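Thanks for the sequence, V.! I ran 5-formyltetrahydrofolate cyclo-ligase right away. Repeating your input here for the record:
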Amino acid sequence: MLKTEIRKIYLQKRTAIDPKDQRIWDDLLLIQFQQLALPPVHSVLTYAAIESRKEISTDALLGYLEFRNPGLEIAYPVFDHRNSIMNAVWVTDNTFFEVNSLGISEPENGAAAAPENFDLVLVPLLSFDKAGFRVGYGKGVYDKYLKQVRPDAIKVGLSYFEPLSKIDDTDEFDIPLNYCITPQGIYEF
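Predicted structure:
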């Protein structure tokens, strides 16, 4: 299946998720995430879920990571829409977030976080395949950014749905995940 077709199908599938099921699946995702054998993590790049698109919130996962890794540094993406690039900034408990023109919450301020600083990256997606490739919203900003991340940084996707067999139109610009977590299990690539 091609990315454009996958994108359309999985946007519809996410829209159709019952809120009660979503809460249950979020709890199951956290349980699966807690089973992931991660080394000590000092820094993580995460994302602010777009609730209207039923993206998976990383809040509970971050709470678990902070408990397991005292002093954990957390960064969020900031998008430059004119140039289709993504940057990241460190946040604290006092950081304010503002919703941008695309409906994405971004930190209003914060020190720049270089891509090579991250031990772990939590990656949003619509779908993924059994080789660890993902389908996002189609702008390619995450793949451009992930290309700059350290090779040993762990890239983890989160999905409510099980993997596709194969995304037919992956290319050299697509960066595969190391893991993807669903309510049913952990996929390692």
